[in-house]
Specification:
The chain is of the alpha/beta class. The protein is built from nine helices and ten strands. The chain has an eight-stranded parallel β-barrel with strand order 1-2-3-4-5-6-7-10. Strands 8-9 form a two-stranded antiparallel sheet.
């Protein structure tokens, strides 16, 4: 494999480094292609889909595909690898076909993640479908418990992702995530992935120092920092508390560069994979990563929080 000229940071070094910067890359053609695409933009971590995100049915891995993927990743020092669940899953749905499909698919996806050696499986918290937040969270926690029971022994941590709060979606409040984690008391199996665009759209103002600190205070109080396992780094096309999930390239949206520099300077984010999920082109991946690296360099020269 062609090597890159930029030295990759040590995954385990959490003292001299901050968050590990990476991208969501396509695995179209073969899983190993995702590693090639991540290497081409010098990503320090990556996220993929193992299937088409808008389809229930997944294609089987081809003979040798998993082995090639693992070998390519190992050649890069095994950068952190996240898998994103498909978009159709709704564990908060009522008993019936959608709930059954959602559980069965998440079970299958966790098994696929284990096969390729993923570090985490990012999962949306679904929508309550007009029955109310309390019942929606209860249904989600019950279905998630069933998934964990059916994949007992699987080492891949499921990461609950916060939402923008669009429609009846769950997870736009830290309290929602905390409630599920309390109901499904499996710290070995569950964690959290925070999306910056979703936080902002849900009303958490990352631009304001006091609001930023209040978010961390609430997260620590309700969930605890050890449960935080990853970030999605996305600017927002829409304004604060818009409740609309529209990702924008870093520094070109309503959140702005200063907020991302603050996040990268925070020791609470040290060593965590931080994945860009903006429009997936190699050119824009490079632009976004270059900007974030500059902001990280500036943050390292400044005072740590």
């Amino acid at each position: 494999m062609k090597s890159t000229s930029t030295k990759r940071p040590s995954i385990s070094d959490k003292t001299s480094k901050r968050g590990l910067l990476g991208v969501h890359v396509s695995s179209a053609g073969a899983l190993g292609n995702a590693i090639d695409r991540a290497e081409a933009v010098q990503a320090e971590c990556l996220q993929i889909f193992t299937r088409a995100p808008g389809m229930w049915r997944a294609r089987d891995f081809r003979p040798g595909e998993v082995e090639t993927f693992r070998a390519k990743r190992a050649a890069l020092g095994n950068p952190p690898l996240l898998v994103h669940d498909l978009y159709l899953t709704n564990l908060a749905s009522p008993p019936g076909d959608l709930r059954d499909k959602s559980i069965a698919t998440l079970v299958e996806e966790r098994e696929r993640c284990a096969a390729i050696g993923a570090d985490g499986l990012v999962c949306h918290m679904g929508a309550h479908l007009d029955v109310g937040v309390a019942l929606g969270l209860q249904r989600f926690a019950s279905a998630l418990s069933e998934v964990l029971a059916r994949t007992a022994g699987n080492p891949v941590r499921i990461l609950l992702e916060n939402s923008a709060g669009q429609g009846t979606t769950l997870g736009h409040e830290v309290a929602h995530i905390a409630q599920v984690l309390d109901q499904v008391d499996r710290p070995d199996a569950l964690g959290v992935c925070l999306d910056t665009c979703h936080l902002f759209a849900a009303g958490y103002d990352l631009r304001d120092e006091d609001a930023y600190q209040a978010l961390w205070d609430e997260f620590e109080r309700r969930i605890g920092l050890p449960r935080l396992r990853a970030f999605h780094l996305n600017d927002s096309k829409r304004g604060l508390n818009c409740r609309v999930d529209r990702h924008e390239h870093i520094g070109r949206g309503e959140i702005g560069k200063a907020a991302f520099q603050r996040l990268l300077s925070d020791v609470r984010t040290a060593g965590l994979p931080m994945i860009i999920e903006t429009a997936e082109t190699a050119d824009m991946h490079r632009v976004n990563l270059e900007l974030l690296r500059k902001l990280r360099t500036l943050s390292l020269k400044g005072k740590s929080r």
